Amino acid sequence: MSVRFFHIQRTYFFYLVIIFFIQLMAGEANAFVRNSLVTSTNQLAFDHKRGGKDIQITSEKNWNVSTQVSWISFSKINGTGNATVQVKVQINNSVTERKGTVIVNTENESDTILIEQQGQPITLVASPSTFEIDKRSQSIEVQVVANTTWEIANVDSWIQIDKVETDLLGKINLTVSSAEQTERTGKITLKASDKEFEIIIKQKQIVTATNEEVLANLSIYPVPASDYLYIEGEVDELALVDVTGQILLTQSNIINRQIKLNTEGFPSGIYFLRISTPVGMGVRRILLNQTKGL
Q1: Other beta carbons within 10 Å of 195
Q2: What gap in Å lies between CA 236 and CA 251, rounded to an integer?
């Protein structure tokens, strides 16, 4: 009886061993199946341009590739066994980096590949970028081209910003105050993200010309004058002075190239017209004759 029982136990033991090895082999087989999908990389990086890069898929099963973003596409989306698939990206028109994922799937496995694409280099330019102007107060318009939002980060105190349009095709309207006798250079700093652009304004010192050179660029009439005196040319300031040195009238910040002075109320006689121009100061003797027709 005991011998028979021993044989039964031994037989039962062998069954257990066989079952154990079968389960072990089945587990290894399942592990092999779970690890049968291999991709050559888990990350691809692109610049902002349109382009493509290959990935290698190793698998004994049917596979497919997919993505949730519209700017990624593939040379093929499914297949069987080992294959090369090109991952393609469209041009990134934004200055911001973007990311997406590519999923490679088989029946019971998947791999994820991270796709990163750089943004456009920041564009920020102004035209003209350099001004050389004379000492007069004057208004200037600057055109700005950018591919992202921008701002004025800094401006010198003698440059007044009148209007700013910060569009991608924007502009700046500014006014420069009158300079003294010395030359000066100022700048306006534009900024978009971490990129800066400088607009340089150079205001020259007064160029001193002879009296004859100053007056040669002007037309002053009639001579003699009576009710009105006309001055044509580029004039910054002027003053009418009598023979005692008393200033009778002045004009400044002149923008018109033809000036009309009302001299009707002044008695006949000799006067002096002091004129400031971009090239220097000139003095012209003026005769007023209030006896019309003579």
Answers
A1: 15
A2: 8
Other Cβ atoms within 10 Å of 294 Cβ, number: 8
pTM assigned to the model = 0.56
CATH 2.60.40.3080 maps onto the chain at 211-288
For the stretch 177-195, pLDDT in tens is: 887 667 889 999 999 998 9
- Is domain 211-288 in CATH 2.40.160.180, yes or no? no
- The 3-state DSSP class for residue 23 equals helix
Distance CA 79, CA 259 (A): 86
Name which of 198, 86, 217 is nearest 152 in CA terms: 198
Q: Looking at domain 124-203, does it have CATH number 2.40.40.10?
A: no
Q: CA torsion angle for 262, 264, 269, 273 (degrees, to 10)?
A: 0
pLDDT tens-place string over residues 237-279: 899 988 777 889 988 877 778 899 999 889 999 899 999 887 7
Q: Where in the chain is the domain with CATH 2.60.40.10?
A: 42-117, 124-203
235, 259 contact by CB (below 8 A):
yes
